């Protein structure tokens, strides 16, 4: 089984650092999502593993072997990009066989390997078709089959679902999760800016911003106990409110709040993080009183925007039978265990 290790990897283009001293390990058989906005360095990190960019410093290891100087075709990887990159003049089966032929696999083995990969991705019945005869989702399945046909130890997925519409994306997420269960020996590095994809698929998420690794942990860890304001706001929605730490809690806009201050010193400034869906409407612990600024109906939920002492607070509530009107005064509340205190100003690691 092959894992991936970034050992202080830096990459620069024309003197501009686009990946800064990345230290990260993807364990054998793990799905690691690189999550971040455009320009965060996540795609550069993936391209360094693929061999498409040469690090300015540091090493890339696959399965414990230093591959920094190896060309892409000698690294034992499969790769899928967002635009499919299928050969339009080749049938599906020929596209899937391309990598095997490039690796000079025994000719007698190729048909069975192609059939296996197509069945695994649910495309066995489309082997004789051309890419132009397939939907976007089907073309992406073919691209994944081509990557799997070479039986890679490492699979690199670069925004593989971003070109699909919402319904197809949801279906492909399910398919990718199934493939991971069927191929537990393959390490997957998954680049995305979509938090839902990362939360759904990844065993761990590496949060990237400004060319650096900001945070890394399981989806549950990053969602429930983020270390930084950036992680809190990028992994899910978050209300981030300035508070002053007090004994047994914090003070927000003159209101005492009961929560675990952790190691924060009384009197110090901090940022309170509470997720919108963890806020309730009406009286309760840690009451926040304010004025309705906006109401959005989202089918099964209502999103309320409430102005509380000059701060806009978001609350996601189960669909309300009667919604408050703009300008109405309301009270929101949250349980002490549902809030996290972040060190003030720690927005980037």
Question: What do you see in this structure?
Answer:
The chain folds into 2 domains: 4-227, P-loop containing nucleotide triphosphate hydrolases (Rossmann fold, 3-Layer(aba) Sandwich); 237-343, Nucleic acid-binding proteins (OB fold (Dihydrolipoamide Acetyltransferase, E2P), Beta Barrel), CATH 2.40.50. The model has no long low-confidence stretch (mean pLDDT 91). The longest helix is centred in the middle third of the chain and has 17 residues, at 166-182. The two termini are 32 Å apart. The strands form 4 sheets. Strands 6-7-8-3-9-10 form a 6-stranded mixed sheet, sandwiched between helices. Strands 13-12-11-14-20 form a 5-stranded antiparallel sheet. A 5-stranded antiparallel sheet has the order 15-19-16-17-18, with no helix packed on it. It is α+β, with helices and mostly antiparallel strands. Helices cover 23% and strands 35% of the residues.
């Amino acid at each position: 089984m092959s894992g991936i290790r970034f050992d202080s990897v830096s990459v620069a283009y024309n003197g501009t650092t686009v990946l800064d001293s990345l230290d990260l390990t993807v364990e054998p058989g793990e799905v690691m999502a690189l999550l971040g906005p455009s320009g965060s360095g996540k795609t550069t990190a993936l391209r360094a593993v693929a061999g498409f960019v040469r690090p300015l410093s540091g090493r890339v290891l696959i399965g414990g072997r230093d591959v920094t100087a190896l060309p892409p075709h000698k690294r034992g990887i499969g790769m899928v990009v967002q635009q499919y990159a299928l050969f339009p003049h080749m049938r599906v089966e020929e596209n899937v066989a391309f990598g095997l032929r490039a690796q000079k696999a025994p000719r007698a083995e190729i048909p069975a390997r192609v059939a296996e990969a197509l069945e695994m991705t649910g495309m066995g019945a489309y082997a004789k078709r051309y890419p132009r005869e397939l939907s976007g989702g089907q073309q992406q399945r073919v691209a994944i089959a081509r990557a799997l046909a070479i039986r890679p130890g490492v699979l690199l997925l670069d925004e593989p679902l971003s070109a699909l519409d919402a319904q197809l994306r949801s279906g492909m997420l399910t398919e990718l999760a199934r493939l991971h269960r069927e191929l537990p020996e393959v390490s997957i590095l998954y680049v995305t800016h979509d938090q839902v994809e990362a939360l759904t698929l990844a065993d761990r998420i590496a949060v990237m911003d400004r060319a650096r690794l900001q945070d890394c942990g399981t989806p549950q860890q990053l969602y429930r106990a983020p270390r930084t304001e950036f992680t809190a706001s990028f992994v899910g929605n978050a209300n981030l409110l300035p508070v002053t730490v007090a004994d047994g809690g914090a003070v927000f806009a003159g209101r005492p709040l009961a929560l675990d201050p952790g190691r924060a010193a009384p009197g110090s400034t901090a940022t309170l993080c509470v997720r919108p869906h963890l806020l309730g409407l009406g009286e309760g612990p840690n009451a926040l009183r304010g004025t309705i600024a906006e109401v959005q109906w989202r089918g099964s939920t209502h999103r309320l925007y409430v102005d509380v002492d000059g701060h806009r607070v978001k609350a996601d509530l189960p669909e309300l039978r009667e919604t408050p009107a703009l300008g109405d005064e309301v009270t929101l509340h949250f349980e002490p265990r549902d809030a996290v205190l972040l060190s003030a100003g720690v927005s980037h690691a």
